[in-house]
Input
Amino acid sequence: MEDNNNTVDKLVRLFGSQKAVAEIAQCSPNSVSNWRKRGVPLKSAKAISDNAHLKNVDITMQQIVDWIDIDKNIENGAIKSSDFQNSKGEANYGRLMKTLSSIKSHGGVQGVYTHQSDATHTPMTFSVFVPPHEAGQTLPVLWYLSGLTCTHANVMEKGEYRQACAEHGVIFVAPDTSPRGDGVADDPDGAYDFGLGAGFYVNATRAPYSNHYKMRDYIEKELPRLIAENFPADMSRQGITGHSMGGHGALTIGLRNLDVYKSISAFSPIVSPVACPWGQKALTGYLGGDQKTWEDYDACALIKNGAHADHLLIDQGLADDFLESQLKPDLIEAACRDHDIKLNLRRHAGYDHSYYFISTFLADHIAWHKEQLK
Output
């Protein structure tokens, strides 16, 4: 991959030769003196030693470059060391996270954070609300996945969830919907329903999207590690929800990982991307034309193939412009009925696809998730 080749080139310049890079990767990654001999700053050397997961050389090489660059920028005053600390004030070199904003709300803290993602090879931004809690207490986590064109900010600014999270003691995490930045491929025609802001929570396998669009790995693997390391999160009590494309993400990620997500809900979800224009375009573009490979990203297919949640909660507005053409809740209702899954599908007259709808019922979902996560 292009990103990893650039990383190795930079390491070659730092360490003198391709051979030296290979030796470091294969021989003594956990030796601080080994790194120090090659001119790595002490803090970075210790961080690399402590986090020497060098079986996956590409990822770790990128981490090494990031650590060295950050160390040097701290030393010359270009950035503050406090920008790269966890919530306990400790230096966090394992998976670096920068605080963009931190605001008190409902007795808790609404924060926005960014980090360099190993999964997408881009910077990624996400928001976290931590409700008030006792020192040393850990709290259940509710993931919220947003829909087409959205970022972390849409639900943060319009979702009206903080009062309910504070009341029920739930951490609320809202990631972005796609990788972004220089070199990240977009829809060739600039359409809203594919590419930037429309990652569909898949691991893309088709070029050029396979370089960065690894949102499945990001949501299921990388970001949970970051949350666990930096926030008072009880990762044995996780729930997941989302809206539209994010509802699709919540259902499919939840159904694939029933041992991780103890509660699953959605607002106006795309329940079967295989059966709607949005999904057909996205899955073809990211995965190719073999529809067998699409089944992991289709909630109805997952249920038919044996995924069995104890209970699903879905809210759907009946004035939604996309109800019949894209969302098709009847399909998941039939799948759950045929496979004995308890589904509470609540249809609401007069409500559309907007955050006016979501904000009306998001507190209900938070209370429901907290009950499931006891």
Remarks:
- The radius of gyration is 22 Å.
- The chain has two domains: 2-75, 98-372.
- The longest strand covers residues 233-242.
- Residues 276 and 326 are 5 Å apart (CA to CA).
